[in-house]
């Protein structure tokens, strides 16, 4: 009953909603979410938004297989870590109102937290540079199961008992769901509201996200809610295994509501004010001034969002994953385009589908430039040797010429094995851009060899 009253309140507070575009079989994005192998299967909702309006929405699969309820633009999915930008919005909003400062130590608001080797600030929590341990891994190590098996209070109490951090706060980056759970508790104590109530009424409602909400304990049956599924013995089994509280995750949202989110970010600015925008899109910094960089894609971590350059475009993005749920949100400021996908199946890669959607709708496409061929000339000052690589099928021929006088070239044949080429004496792992490779043997590892300057135009 409480949920029903809150929902009616959000409807009353919400601005004029964005016009939603119903999914269409003629939509060029429809192929990206259609399972051609299984008619009865979970699926995804995919949206492309331009200048605050839903441009294309494609949806396929079932939100609830047992009930044969199809996915559409209003289906609610668990957003997993895509939720983090909404936690960051709450923090940024309170900071812009002067109710907290990102430079404040977290113990100012959570005095029961232990003191660590160095101060932990809200800024460090926001940018994953605090070293605070991840509560999901702590729950498993404590024998308490997954986040879905535990309450917010249990997870928070476990975090409060940690006497140490993963590293000296401010000196490194390590993604932490624990840091964002602490931020949610800070929002609750500063605002005097539960974290869920604050986000639902002060962040989501003003943007017109009237169907979306942050969970606050296990929920009753909600209309058009997607179950998560994993394939098991040729069938799809339900896996609604996610925490039922907010902070690091906890957001239930739809593609049509994410169109409204993009509208506020780019046009309305009811929540995305200038001050909030600055906090959300400014990369974090380590104590020595270096930017906080996410290692897998080399993007900087800002307010619950990764920012930087990818495939020749400025991007603002974040992914989410929770066993059977996959999500991805990306905004390309220069192109004025956003794309989002929400899936309730474990076997599809949300990020790749977003890239494929952007490649289809951008005039010049959206794809990483093709790397130069692996074949070519390379050199190593460490080994004082030059290398000529040639490739035929799965066999890489490596001709090594020592720079020492009086030496003759030596030829090695290496066989491809996944991402490496393996030989009797060493293995060779090419960099993604084929500008270098790494040599490893049983007793000597990590020797980088770079493409020579004369060959760099390849």
Characterise this structure.
This protein has 458 residues and is an alpha+beta fold. The protein folds into 2 domains: 2-87 and 184-361, DD-peptidase/beta-lactamase superfamily (Beta-lactamase); 376-455, Lipocalin (Beta Barrel), CATH 2.40.128. It is built from 10 helices and 23 strands. It has helices at 2-13, 84-96, 122-126, 135-141, 152-160, 177-191, 195-204, 255-268, 274-281, 350-361, and strands spanning 44-50, 53-60, 62-64, 69-70, 77-78, 213-214, 229-232, 235-238, 251-253, 293-294, 299-301, 306-310, 313-322, 325-332, 337-343, 376-380, 385-392, 395-402, 410-417, 420-422, 427-430, 436-440, 447-451. The strands form 5 sheets. An 8-stranded antiparallel beta sheet has the order 2-1-15-14-13-12-11-10. Strands 16-17-18-19-20-21-22-23 form an 8-stranded antiparallel barrel. Strand 19 and strand 20 form a beta hairpin. Helix 2 (84-96) runs parallel beside helix 6, helix 2 (84-96) packs across helix 7 and helix 4 (135-141) packs across helix 5. The radius of gyration is 25 Å and the shape is globular. Residues 1-17 have low confidence and may be disordered.
């Amino acid at each position: 009953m409480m949920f029903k009253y809150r929902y009616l309140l959000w409807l009353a507070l919400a601005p004029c909603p964005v016009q939603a575009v119903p999914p269409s079989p003629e939509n060029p994005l429809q192929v990206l979410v259609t399972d051609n192998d299984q008619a009865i299967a979970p699926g995804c909702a995919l949206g492309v938004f331009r200048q605050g309006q839903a441009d294309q929405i494609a949806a396929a699969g079932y939100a609830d297989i047992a009930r044969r309820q199809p996915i559409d633009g209003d289906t609610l999915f668990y957003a997993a870590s895509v939720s983090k930008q909404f936690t960051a919005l709450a923090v940024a909003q309170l900071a812009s109102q002067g109710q907290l400062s990102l430079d404040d130590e977290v113990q100012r608001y959570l005095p029961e937290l232990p003191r660590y080797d160095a101060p932990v600030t809200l800024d460090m929590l926001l940018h994953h540079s605090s070293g605070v341990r991840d509560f999901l891994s702590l729950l498993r190590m404590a024998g308490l199961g997954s986040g879905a098996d535990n309450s917010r209070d249990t997870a928070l109490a476990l975090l409060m008992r940690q006497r140490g951090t993963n590293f000296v706060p401010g000196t490194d980056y390590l993604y932490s769901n624990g840091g964002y759970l602490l931020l949610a508790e800070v929002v609750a104590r500063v605002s005097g509201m539960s974290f869920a109530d604050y986000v639902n009424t002060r962040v989501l409602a003003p943007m017109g996200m009237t169907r979306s909400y942050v969970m606050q304990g296990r929920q009753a049956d909600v209309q058009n809610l997607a179950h998560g599924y994993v394939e098991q013995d040729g069938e799809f089994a339900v896996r609604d295994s996610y925490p039922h509280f907010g902070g690091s995750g906890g957001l239930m949202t739809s593609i049509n509501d994410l169109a409204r989110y993009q509208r506020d970010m780019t046009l309305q600015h009811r929540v995305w004010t200038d001050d909030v925008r600055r906090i959300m899109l400014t990369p974090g910094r380590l104590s020595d001034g270096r930017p906080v960089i996410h290692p897998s894609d080399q993007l900087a971590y800002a307010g619950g969002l990764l920012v930087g350059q990818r495939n020749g475009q400025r991007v603002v993005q974040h992914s989410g994953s929770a066993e059977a749920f996959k999500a991805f949100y990306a905004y390309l400021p220069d192109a004025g385009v956003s794309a989002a996908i929400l899936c309730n199946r474990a076997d599809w890669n949300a990020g790749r589908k977003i890239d494929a959607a952007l490649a289809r709708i951008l005039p010049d496409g959206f794809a990483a430039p093709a790397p130069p061929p692996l074949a070519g000339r390379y050199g190593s000052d460490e080994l004082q040797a030059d290398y000529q690589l040639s490739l035929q099928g799965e066999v890489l021929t490596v001709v090594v010429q020592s720079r020492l006088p009086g030496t003759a070239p030596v030829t090695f044949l290496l066989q491809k094995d996944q991402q490496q080429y393996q030989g009797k004496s060493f293995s060779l792992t090419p960099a993604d851009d084929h500008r270098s490779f790494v040599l490893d043997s049983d007793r000597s590892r990590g020797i980088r060899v770079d493409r020579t300057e004369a060959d760099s135009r390849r």
